Amino acid sequence: MSSIRIKKERRSPERHRRRSRSRSRSRSRERIRIKKEKPDDSHRNGDHGKRERRDHRNHRRDDAGQSRDRHRSRNDDHQRVKQERVKQEREYNDEARRRDRKHRPQNPFSNSDQDRQDWGGQNDSGASQDSEGENPNPAPKDQPNFGVSGKLAEDTNTFRGVVIKYNEPPEARIPKRRWRFYVFKGEETLPVLHLHRQSAYLLGRDRKIADMPIDHPSCSKQHAVFQYRLVDYQKEDGTIGRRIRPYIIDLESANGTFLNNKKIEPKRYYELQEKDVIKFGFSTREYVLLHANSKDTDDDMD
Fold first, then answer.
1. Residue partners of 111: CB distance under 8 A and separation at least 6
2. Which of 289, 223, 278 is nearest to 256 (CA)?
3. Does this model's pTM top 0.70?
């Protein structure tokens, strides 16, 4: 029973309150004692805190100034090195020019006395210094060449980014007669090619620019041109008339163009007649020239 009473006494609320009050008093005394020992310990509202903040700002300014000075000095060093390098390069180039000037031969067309003496001219006294006794003949100057270079034609005769090798002549015309190519490959008949819608047809392997593509590998990209021309002819009564006739011209192809099994010369017009057979390169296709009204002969006359 005695032990139970002791425990109850220890747990009494009055005693607990007294102890808590005593603890709070001791803590307050301790805080007062600490304040008395360190009266200038206020870092927020006291003079010590202001002084520390001011010192910190000054320190940051000093650091910024020092870093700025270091950066400025580094830039000055780079600029100084760059200037020294440029100066060295200039001195080297000047020295190289001086060496070249020393080893360079004298100009024979110069008017100075020293140059004339070195090249066999006459000095101030009129005496000749040439070992052979004759003045050297100057080399003839190149005359200006005003010929056609072909660059203007390349700029004006470009189609889809490709320079066309051929230019139509002034007498090019669109025909009235409806000419056609009947194409045969052995015993096989291929579709008919109509040739009356324009004045010229480019034949070649380049489908980008060709009017009539030829896919055989032996043919050139720009192989030949089928051209209509307005030409003069003599009538039966002796008068001169004009008519539109078809022509073929080879554009210097690699394997040539054949008219009635005969190879034609490049860059030359060949007049075509009805039922002529044309072949290109080593292709087995035969192009037979016909028109809609074969019996009429005066339809093309103008």
1. none
2. 223
3. no
